[in-house]
Write a structure and sequence with these properties.
2 copies of one chain form a homodimer. Chain A has 2 domains: 2-55 and 336-345, Nicotinate-nucleotide-dimethylbenzimidazole phosphoribosyltransferase (CobT), small domain (5,6-Dimethylbenzimidazole Phosphoribosyltransferase, Chain: A, domain 1, Orthogonal Bundle), CATH 1.10.1610.10; 59-328, Nicotinate-nucleotide-dimethylbenzimidazole phosphoribosyltransferase (CobT), large domain (Rossmann fold), CATH 3.40.50.10210. The first copy, chain A, contains 14 helices and 6 strands. The first copy, chain A, has helices at 4-10, 16-28, 38-50, 82-93, 97-105, 146-165, 180-192, 208-225, 232-239, 242-256, 266-278, 296-304, 320-338, 342-345, and strands spanning 59-67, 107-115, 127-128, 168-176, 261-263, 286-288. The first copy, chain A, has a 6-stranded parallel beta sheet, sandwiched between helices. In chain A, helix 11 (266-278) links the parallel strand 5 and strand 6. The longest helix of chain A is centred in the middle third of the chain and has 20 residues, at 146-165.
Chain lengths: 351, 351
């Protein structure tokens, strides 16, 4: 199950019987019915995904894909392109926000070079899966070939295969790539038909002048490439990114292998949207971790009918929102595993 | 600092210099400025409370106060009064949602009998501080005497003194008491002037008939008692509860002893509001953990100018929302403690 088509064909609906049994158990626990709100909803979803009505507390993994974007030459980012590689170093050394938060929730972290510009093949602590030295400038032509997009997706799928082999039961998605809010905005515009001015945000913090350039650049990329919204691989290869393709593979792989997967912010959401467009059923395996300040994120989640768990005004990416939400997912599973029923506890039920 | 007046007088403003230094450090870390949103806001607040610009990761404690309410004879709850005591048993045995969630976030849990109806003085695993066998029926007269209210507040203060002695650095508030959403609604109505029909919620889940009775009972209690909104102890003693008084003491004690304290849901919020009315500065030491489904909760938080961290459609109480938010508070502190600066990591700054 390492190939894209095979993976897509493997994806099946959630296990309704497991969900029904989980709901029944939740209703028997010593609390007013439904009073744990979205924790109960998450527990039921995890049961449907895993097929276990009392799910295991999962071994957790965050997969962080890093890649560069040719479009940065248009001046769409507040940070220089070198920051992608410098931040990869920072992840290896453990100094980034994602290191702190994944450690905080007990998640392992895999950093994948799927398209960083420059040779870092000698570096330890990275999973080396480079498809290309960044994408080409999408304002001038397509960002990558269709074949590169498929290979990048299959890297993501292969990460999930390895994760499953190693016993991981919950996967978070993260990314690093200067310029990737520009690519994500173009993807959302391509699928939704919305103009860039209604989707774009400030990313890492461009000023008004930079915002204007960013909008014009995305308009140009859409105009030059004319991505076909009915062909998700066309959208992805023309205006996407290698880390976005890789994460789309993670979402598809998780759906195929029945592992719950957390969407992080706007870029991770663009990858989720590509996966969802390739196979709408994949959306049932996704949990929206948080709502990013980057306004296009809400558009993505609405398109997939997902509601975020957290809303903490975050806009960092890297998988930080997904990591924080892992603590909530764990809590929901522990509720179903560890709470006493009314009968066990000898507590009187509702009159 | 065990007496109410003395405690109130001890409460001082936050440490602005510590907050300024924390903000400066946050801005030097390897992330776009402000991109961790409310995590950064919480880190700054903790610095202001503790006076340490790089706060320690705190030893965590949840204080759960249990008490009964005479008003339940009016038929305002979906569960029988015995459930208060039965749930105290459940807390001791570890089967309640609060046991699961406090363990999940690494918080200790103190269960305090401050007014459970019936003798449980022989039970182990409880802190015995009973002021009375529940309150009197507030629909007929005042719930407790002013002296009882003050003594219950001072129990809460004494819990914080003990907690500080034992090195706790973050305190969550929780409660158990069949009938306590009725008392909390009456408190909010007394302070805000809003009619019960605009504040009341379904509590543990009363039906439409029960809601009608609940509203009428609160109207009657306010009419019979005429609590004076300018005298918080008058409101508390006439239409409050012993666990609400105890938690008001926890809030005041934390403000006096500079320990960050988490508001849980609607009942904990009513206690916070009493503390805030006694000393508005105490509100600066409070962190609103989540937004309860019980609609009066938002009214309370708005009155204190607080914004909840989580919104997970929960309405269980016990301190469950505060416990979940402890994970977020810890994360915010670890960010400031563990992340690398741009300089340390050799990452290029914004152009």
């Amino acid at each position: 199950m390492l190939r894209l088509n095979e993976t897509i064909e493997t994806i099946e609906p959630l296990d309704n019987e497991a969900m029904r049994l989980t709901q029944r158990r939740l209703d028997s626990l010593t609390k007013p019915q439904g009073s744990l709100g979205r924790l109960e909803e998450v527990a039921v979803r995890i049961a449907g995904i895993t097929g276990k009505y009392i799910p295991d507390v999962p071994k957790k993994l965050s997969v962080l894909m890093a890649a560069d974007h040719g479009v940065v030459v248009e001046g769409v980012s507040a940070f220089p392109q070198d920051v992608t590689m410098e931040m990869v170093e920072n992840f290896i050394k453990g100094g980034a926000a994602m290191n702190v938060l994944s450690k905080h929730v007990g998640s392992d972290l895999w950093v994948v070079d799927i398209g960083v510009k420059g040779d870092i093949s000698g570096k330890k602590g990275i999973i080396h899966k480079k498809i290309a030295n960044g994408t080409s400038n999408m304002a001038k032509g397509q960002a990558m070939t269709r074949d590169e997009a498929i290979r990048a997706i299959e890297v993501g799928i292969s990460m999930v295969v390895q994760a499953k082999d190693q016993g991981y039961g919950l996967i978070g998605t993260g990314e690093m790539g200067i310029g990737n809010t520009t690519a994500s905005t173009a993807i959302v515009c391509a699928f939704s038909g919305l103009p860039p001015s209604e989707v774009v945000g400030r990313g890492t913090g461009v000023d008004d002048e930079g915002m204007k350039r960013k909008i014009e650049t995305i308009e140009k990329a859409l105009d030059v490439n004319r991505p076909d919204p009915n062909d998700p691989l066309d959208v992805l290869s023309k205006v996407g990114g290698l880390e976005i393709a890789g994460l789309a593979g993670v979402f598809l792989g998780c759906a195929a292998m029945r592992i719950p997967v957390l969407i992080d912010g706007f870029i991770s959401g663009a990858a989720a949207l590509v996966a969802y467009k390739l196979k709408p059923l994949a959306g049932e395996y996704m949990i929206a971790s948080h709502l990013s300040m980057e306004r296009g994120h809400r558009i993505e989640l609405d398109m997939m009918g997902l509601k975020p768990l957290l809303d903490l005004d975050m806009r960092l990416g890297e998988g930080t929102g997904a990591a924080l939400a892992m603590g909530i997912v764990d809590a929901s599973i522990k509720i179903i595993r560890e709470m006493a029923t009314f009968e066990e506890a000898g507590v009187s039920e509702k009159e």
